[in-house]
Specification:
Layout (H helix, E strand, L loop, with lengths): L2 E2 L3 E11 L4 E16 L2 E14 L8 E11 L6 E10 L9 E9 L5
Parallel strand pairs: 4-6
Antiparallel strand pairs: 1-2, 2-5, 3-4, 6-7
Length: about 110
C-alpha cells in the first residue's frame, strides 16, 4: 500500500518472473477484474499475462521485474479490500488455469 485516504487506496503490484535459457517469458499486460462485493468486503483480482517467446537469452538474464501502480476508489460501505495477483501463461497449453501467486488483505475498520 502506498497511501490511503477516505475515498482512494493507492498500491503497487510488483513481482519477478523467471526467464532464461531457450524460452523467454515476458509480461504482455496486467489486467484488472473487480470481484463481487460481499457485505463490507470486496476482492480485486489482477491477472499478469505472460507470453512465451521462442529464442535464447543470455546466461546473465535470470528474469524480469514488473511493477504497476494502481489506484482504486473505495465504495462507502467497503471496509475490507482483498487484492489477489494471478499469473496467466497465455500460450502455454499445459497450464490453462491462472495460478494465484500473491494475496493481500487491507482491513479499514476503525480500531478502538
Amino acid at each position: 500500500m502506498l497511501s490511503k485516504n477516505a475515498e482512494t487506496l493507492k498500491f503497487r503490484i510488483q513481482r519477478n518472473i523467471s526467464s532464461g535459457g531457450h524460452t523467454i517469458h515476458q509480461v504482455r499486460k496486467i489486467r484488472f477484474e473487480e470481484g463481487e462485493q460481499n457485505g463490507n468486503s470486496i476482492t480485486l483480482r489482477y491477472y499478469v499475462e505472460i507470453k512465451k517467446v521462442p529464442g535464447k537469452e543470455s546466461a546473465d538474464v535470470k528474469g524480469y521485474n514488473y511493477t504497476k501502480d494502481e489506484s482504486y476508489k473505495i465504495p462507502d460501505d467497503v471496509k475490507i479490500i482483498k487484492i489477489e495477483l494471478y499469473e496467466d501463461r497465455i500460450n502455454d497449453t499445459s497450464d490453462t488455469k491462472p495460478k494465484r501467486i500473491a494475496q493481500q488483505t487491507f482491513n479499514f475498520f476503525a480500531k478502538i
